[in-house]
Automatic annotation (TrEMBL):
This is Prolyl 4-hydroxylase subunit alpha-1. It comes from the Eukaryota. InterPro entries: Oxoglu/Fe-dep_dioxygenase_dom, P4HA-like, Pro_4_hyd_alph, Pro_4_hyd_alph_FE2OG_OXY, TPR-like_helical_dom_sf, TPR_P4H. The keyword Transmembrane does not apply. Signal peptide: none annotated. The keyword Endoplasmic reticulum applies. Keywords: Dioxygenase, Endoplasmic reticulum, Glycoprotein, Iron, Metal-binding, Oxidoreductase, Vitamin C. Its cofactor is L-ascorbate. Residues 221-329 form the Fe2OG dioxygenase domain. Transmembrane segments: none annotated. Coiled coil: none annotated. It comes from Mizuhopecten yessoensis. One of its GO terms (cellular component) is endoplasmic reticulum.
Length: 344
C-alpha cells in the first residue's frame, strides 16, 4: 500500500483514490503496531474527507492507544531510576555540592573539552572505539570515521523517531538520588526525554536491530530507546551510565543487571556546542547527524569502567537531538563472556 501511495503522488492521471489508499494504509500500519504513522495517515485522510466517520473514530482510537502507551512508558521508566518526567511538588533538591564540584579539576577539564581544547590526557579515540568491538565483522554495516560511527541512522529514521507524536511524550529529564532512591530534577541535567518501544514505529525496530547487529549484544534485555532533546543551554554534567556498587537498587526492578554498554546516536547537527566529552581520557565527540558512539561501561568481570565518565556539553546555538540505547548484562553471558584478566 505504501507503494500505491507513492505512485498516486506521482501520477498525473489518477488511477486510484488517495483517500482509499490512506484508509487501507493507516489500518495496516495500526495492525503492525506503527501507531504514530497510522495517526499521521488518518489525519491526512481527514483533510481529504473530513466527514469520514470511520477515520474520525480511528483518530480518537489511535490517540487513546498512544496516550495509554505513554502512561505505561512513564510508569515503567520510573522504575529505571532515570527518566524524563514532568516536575512534581514532591521533588527533592539533589544534594550534590555543586559549588565545590565546579571548582574541581574534573570540571575544569570538562569545560576545556567542551570548548574544543585539548587536555593533558590524550588518547587515540578511533583505536579505543575499534577495540570496543570484539569482532571486526560486527561493524560491517557501519563506517568508522575519526572515532565516530557514521551512517548509524538514516534521515527518514531520524525524522520518524522525532515525530510530532513522540515529541508530545517528552518530559523534563531527572536523575536518581542514590541516598533517597527517588527521582528528581537537577541543575546539572537540563534536557527533555521520552522512551520509545519497538512496537511504536518501524524505524525504532530497525535502529534496535542495527545496534544488535553492530555490537553483537542481545537487545531483548536492553532498555527502550530513549530520545532526548537539549535546547539552548541544555547539558548533562559528568556522570556514569552504570550503577556503582553503592547504588545497589539502581536497576533492581528491571532484573536485568547493570548497564553493560551504551549506544549514543546523534540525530541532529548542532551549530555550536553539544559535544559528548570524557574528562578522564580527554575525549571529545562533536555531534554529526546520523553518527553514533558506542562504549562498554563494564569490564568482562562486571566491574565498572570509570574512564567512561562522560558529559553532554551545553548547546550554545541551535538544538540537539540524540537517542540512547542502554544495554544490560542479562542475556550477554554467551555474547560477551567473562574474562580471566580483570582489566578486559
Amino acid at each position: 500500500m505504501q507503494t500505491s501511495l507513492n505512485q498516486e503522488t506521482q501520477e498525473i492521471n489518477k488511477t486510484a483514490d488517495r483517500a482509499d489508499i490512506l484508509d487501507y494504509l493507516s489500518y495496516s500500519n495500526m495492525m503492525e503496531g506503527n501507531l504514530n504513522y497510522a495517526l499521521t495517515l488518518t489525519e491526512e485522510l481527514l483533510t481529504l474527507a473530513p466527514d469520514n466517520t470511520r477515520a474520525q473514530n480511528n483518530k480518537r482510537y489511535y490517540k487513546k492507544m498512544l496516550n495509554d502507551r505513554a502512561i505505561e512508558s512513564h510508569q515503567l521508566a520510573s522504575q529505571r531510576g532515570e527518566i524524563g518526567v514532568e516536575d512534581t511538588e514532591e521533588e527533592i533538591k539533589h544534594e550534590r555540592k555543586l559549588d565545590d564540584y565546579r571548582n574541581s579539576e574534573e570540571f575544569a577539564t570538562y569545560e576545556k573539552l567542551c570548548r574544543g581544547e585539548d587536555t593533558q590526557v590524550s588518547v587515540n579515540w578511533a583505536s579505543i572505539l575499534a577495540n570496543q568491538f570484539e569482532k571486526e565483522n560486527d561493524i560491517d554495516l557501519l563506517t568508522r570515521s575519526q572515532g565516530k560511527i557514521c551512517q548509524a541512522t538514516s534521515e527518514e529514521e531520524s525524522k520518524s523517531i522525532e515525530s510530532y507524536n513522540n515529541i508530545l511524550l517528552l518530559g523534563r529529564a531527572t536523575v536518581h538520588n542514590a541516598k533517597t532512591g527517588k527521582l528528581e530534577t537537577a541543575t546539572y541535567r537540563i534536557s527533555k526525554s521520552a522512551w520509545l518501544k519497538d512496537e511504536d514505529d518501524l524505524a525504532i525496530r530497525r535502529v534496535n536491530s542495527r545496534i544488535e547487529a553492530a555490537t553483537g549484544l542481545d537487545m531483548s534485555t536492553a532498555e527502550d530507546l530513549q530520545i532526548a532533546n537539549y535546547g539552548l543551554g541544555g547539558h548533562y554534567e559528568p556522570h556514569f551510565d552504570f550503577a556503582r556498587k553503592e547504588e545497589k537498587h539502581a536497576f533492581k526492578s528491571l532484573g536485568t543487571g547493570n548497564r553493560i554498554a551504551t549506544w549514543l546516536t546523534y540525530m541532529s547537527d548542532v551549530k555550536a556546542g553539544g559535544a559528548t566529552v570524557f574528562p578522564y581520557i580527554g575525549v571529545k565527540i562533536f555531534p554529526e547527524k546520523g553518527g553514533a558512539a558506542f562504549w562498554y561501561n563494564l569490564y568482562k568481570s562486571g566491574e565498572g569502567i570509570y574512564d567512561t565518565r562522560h558529559a553532554a556539553c551545553p548547546v550554545l546555538v541551535g538544538t540537539k537531538w540524540v537517542s540512547n540505547k542502554w544495554i544490560h548484562e542479562k542475556g550477554q553471558e554467551f555474547r560477551r563472556r567473562c574474562g580471566l584478566n580483570p582489566d578486559e
